[in-house]
Fold these 2 entries.
Entry 1:
Amino acid sequence: AKSLGRGQVQFFSESMRQKLKGAALLETDIQRAIQHNEFELYYQPIFRIADGSVAAFEALVRWHHPDKGFVTPDSFIPVAEDSGLIMQLDLHLLEQAAKQLQCWQKTIKTPFRITVNVSSRHFANLDFVSFIDNLYQSYQLKPGSLCIEITESGLIANLSLATKIIEGLAPHQVKLCLDDFGTGYSALGYLHQLPIHVLKIDKSFIDNLKDGKNNPLVEAILTLAVSLELDVVAEGIEQQSQLDVLKQTNCDYGQGFLVAKPMPAAEAILYLNEHK
Ligand code: C2E
Ligand code: CA
Ligand code: CA
Ligand code: CA
């Protein structure tokens, strides 16, 4: 038993070592990839449930890796998040989104937004405000055209600083969306203190809208949103029956594979032109 115990300890530390090594390699690789422009933003429509028209696009990163091929974010965002490299990656992608917006705004007259996911790490430092200021100036973005998605846990860690940062973005009408809403801690008490604008109901709640049955939690979130004057987006809509329920509950915005998957910019613009 003793040797087995020792063996287990050794096995554990070896696997830990491999894991750390893997993470370190991935970090270096991400840095290299930023330099080589291997990250591409895909765009998924956020539509008005009433008529299916596009209100915004969520930007979702994809990695064209020279050896690994097409890589989705779940395999590298968590590592970037842990190492802090996410700061650099997010800014790189925000700039890409701003470039895309500038390009689209030249040809598309109907208003729409691009919403970009960023780590809550940015909400611990006022530098983020000047970065966004610069983006708005450099790419001559229209007010309200860029939106930020963030998960709530990082915001409540430092409420007053987060509030300052969100207020610093207000001159550009940058809207703040709480992503994955309903998961995590959801200390509802802070919601009215934060100057946010949009709640995105997590897919797990939408999954429960099976067979045309409503989920009381979704209804509760919608009621809460009305009283706080927040917009609501339901994410991860995969079935018509889910969309039908959302229509009945007066959820304004939706997103999901049922209607459209994330797509490259060239396809997204075609989609937008067909769903204005
Ligand atoms: P998220 O922000 O919650 O994004 C929604 C995820 O659900 C996306 O996965 C999207 O492709 C997927 N999705 C959309 N509709 C459906 C549906 O109907 N069914 C299903 N099963 N999935 C759907 P993706 O693109 O793999 O991104 C995963 C996560 O990676 C994102 O979750 C976000 O947390 C993170 N992420 C993606 N892009 C970025 C980025 O540019 N920056 C940062 N910081 N994080 C990002
Ligand atoms: Ca998101
Ligand atoms: Ca989400
Ligand atoms: Ca998520």
Entry 2:
Amino acid sequence: FAAGALAGLKVVVSAGPTYEDIDPVRFIGNRSSGRMGFAVAEAAAQAGAEVTLVAGPVALPTPPGVARRIDVRSAAQMLAAVEEAAADADIYIGAAAVGDYRPQQVAPRKLAKQGGAGLTLTLVENPDILATLAARPQRPFLVGFAAQTHDLAAYARDKLQRKGIDLVAANEVGAGLGFETPDNALTVYWADGLLELPRADKRELARRLVEVIGERYRAVRG
Ligand code: C5P
């Protein structure tokens, strides 16, 4: 393991789910545990980076070596924290499972049952954090994740192009891999190449991923 793969670089990692509030006691969330992102943050610190970890609501301790942790709840809060932290960063790794939608309004009081009638929530789309950073003239090297159940390569290549990012780490979810599991397997895609990282526990996989990120960063940014 190349201990200095990210030596001297400022790296921002986002991790975990986002929670989009419906009312004071309810929210829309997802099953991301944050484990993969926290493992990536730890591996990046081990590889010599100065790491800022932007964490959604998770029950995980800050990994050793991580310089700064910013806890957020919603996608909007995550975007604001990432934009600030990434302003002078070399690399942004978006490992968070950002909610695609949020309720248009957050009810100020707990919603009551409708007496047998249904309840309709209107959702609006959240901003895409990676695409927002990619649109800037001065932007960090951008790494995204893709979790799909099928057609992994096509989705990953589409994500590279559509979001305008440098690297996509793709994993197949289901079949005991991905969310809420200790193991994962990844295929890393960039504009003109790919590398398969076989099934391993998330910390080992994170170390391999960080090595690839270091190699690709230096290939593109010198
Ligand atoms: O578009 P999709 O959610 O499939 O892409 C996943 C990747 O995009 C992840 O790296 C995730 O962190 C990032 N993402 C983001 N902002 C969003 C949604 C996803 O940065 N609003």
